[in-house]
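Might I ask for a little of your time on a matter of protein folding? The record follows directly beneath this note:
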Amino acid sequence: MIVCEGLMSFTVFVDGLEGTTGLRIHEYLSQRRDVEVLRIDPDRRKDATERARLLNSADVAFLCLPDHAAREAASLVNNPRTCLIDASSAHRTVPGWVFGLPELAPGQRDAIRAAKRIANPGCHASAFILLLRPLVDAGLVPAGHLLSAASISGYSGGGKKMIEQYEGAASSGAEPALTSPRPYALSLTHKHLPEMMAHTGLQTAPIFMPAVGNFYKGLAVTVPLHLRSLNTTPDAVHAALTARYTGERFIRVMPLRDGRGDHADILVAERQHGHFRHDP
């Protein structure tokens, strides 16, 4: 940390600046006067010694890397002052790493503030966890209950290659199949499943069916609940979500019923630069 022109300035290093996540983080940080972004020489970005130097020189280092590379980068850090924020799925269920979802549970925001190792949550997982964790904590959904979930998300989550594929098809008219949602992870082994279980308390992975849509970003997650088998009611579900999220800046619990008396969407979670919609 340095002091410049009366401002306290934090040094930040983005390891993996070439990817979409790293580029976006750099774009945000470069607009701030209280942050000094450390840059690696492009010719040395795979040099472990130079990466280690920059990682240990930073107050905060973002790991915008594939899982195996994120684990390697974390092992290079020996400066106890450096705070690591890992955007990959490598550390989301690893002891010693704090799950970076402030609304997860009471006390989570303080845990994140105090942490030096923070695992950024996955997009689908964030939506699923925000829906289920309050219901499991309230005893409305037993930890052993079998669940399914569906999600549709924008193509930016697929990285540079998928962005180029969709935007190229839009300009050329090629690949008309891309105009329809495309299911994926049909083997039911999506990499978000471990955190979806670990941070809700569920004992069995849900049957999770994600799809990519022809839009840039945002997602909608649906978790159907058979209330009769759970011996609960929509009002009880709504009350549990309301109790958990009252006062949260980025989450709105919607009215249980619309003007016609029908059940409406229950939960909307909004992020400053994106949008989640969760429909139980």
About this structure: The first strand starts at residue 2 and ends at 4. The longest helix spans residues 123-137. The two ends are 44 Å apart (CA to CA).
